[in-house]
């Protein structure tokens, strides 16, 4: 009990955000520099593009009934996570530089929580997609038999876990009671939390890579003995193409987030000796690009998605030319009535 009392007696909740930055030696600019202004301007522009691009993916999936399958619902939820990431980064841009000094601890925790939630949601979605693809492709099906209710529960569960992970640092796993445990990248976060969070995400990545590797090997083995002129072969190729698109999404995610997660891990393990602040902004910029990559992958790999995008843009252009024009019931019910249904993912 005496030890516990001594630990809690070191807590001083009166310290402000600036105190923690000074404690870990992280510089806070007093005035705006040209570099800061350019970074924020470009950052906000990218955030706007990220939000609009992923919003279009979500609209396309909701409007085109040919995307109303579990895998596309999960991909739509991934687009929602990327859209949320764009909002989180925009909030970060609007509360950085000299503005950081004006933040209360609550506002600072919210800023960090938004980033944590978006990353956790993306990772959880990728894991859910990997499991769904494993179940369907091993049985050589195009789509799983998962009901819409189960998909909805899975999506709700993903966001619940993400929100919890985002709130953990502000609720109890911070360094306000142990200043020697403060992170240099996120000065109010506990280094032990960063180690836990980075290891958990890296482990999830490795699991997903192993799952997709097993699927590739299985499909390649099963396809060898099938004639290239059979319907079964075409079905298998469709499944493989779908998996390739998802694998590209996973690969882009790993490439964009791996530097940041490794930086956080080194910061948690080594503290100031890691010099993590030197690479922090670079890693954050790469991570932000990931939210823009996925809509590009969907557009380049999926003919049906690309046609749906064109239809949406055409509708927006027509509405801009004539605000009074109303769509006919046929147009409302069938976004792409003349497009032959096939998957080219």
Measured by DSSP, the beta-strand proportion falls in under 5%
Number of E-type strands: 0
Helix content: over 70%
**How many distinct domains?**
1
The CATH superfamily is Rhodopsin 7-helix transmembrane proteins
Topology as a string of helices (H) and strands (E): HHHHHHHHHHH
* Structural class determined from secondary elements: mainly alpha
Biggest beta sheet summary: none
CATH T-level fold name: Rhopdopsin 7-helix transmembrane proteins
Rounded mean pLDDT score: 79
Text of the CATH class: Mainly Alpha
Indicate the CATH architecture: Up-down Bundle
Runs with pLDDT <50, length 5+? Answer: 1-9, 324-345
The shape is globular
Task: Report the total helices.
Answer: 11
What is the first-to-last residue Cα distance?
61 Å
Family: Belongs to the G-protein coupled receptor 1 family.
Keywords: Cell membrane, Disulfide bond, Endosome, G-protein coupled receptor, Glycoprotein, Membrane, Receptor, Transducer, Transmembrane, Transmembrane helix
Pfam families: 7tm_1
Domain G-protein coupled receptors family 1 profile: 53-298
Please sum up the structure shown.
Mean pLDDT is 79; it is low at 1-9 and 324-345. Helix content is 72%, strand content 0%.
Features:
single chain, 345 residues, mainly alpha, Rhopdopsin 7-helix transmembrane proteins, disordered N terminus, disordered C terminus, glycoprotein, lysophosphatidic acid receptor activity
Structural write-up:
The protein is mainly α. The chain has one domain (32-333): Up-down Bundle (Rhopdopsin 7-helix transmembrane proteins). The chain has eleven helices and no strands. It has helices at 2-9, 17-24, 34-63, 70-93, 105-138, 148-171, 191-223, 231-270, 277-301, 303-321, 329-333. The model is unreliable at 1-9 and 324-345 (pLDDT under 50). Keywords: Cell membrane, Disulfide bond, Endosome, G-protein coupled receptor, Glycoprotein, Membrane, Receptor, Transducer, Transmembrane, Transmembrane helix.
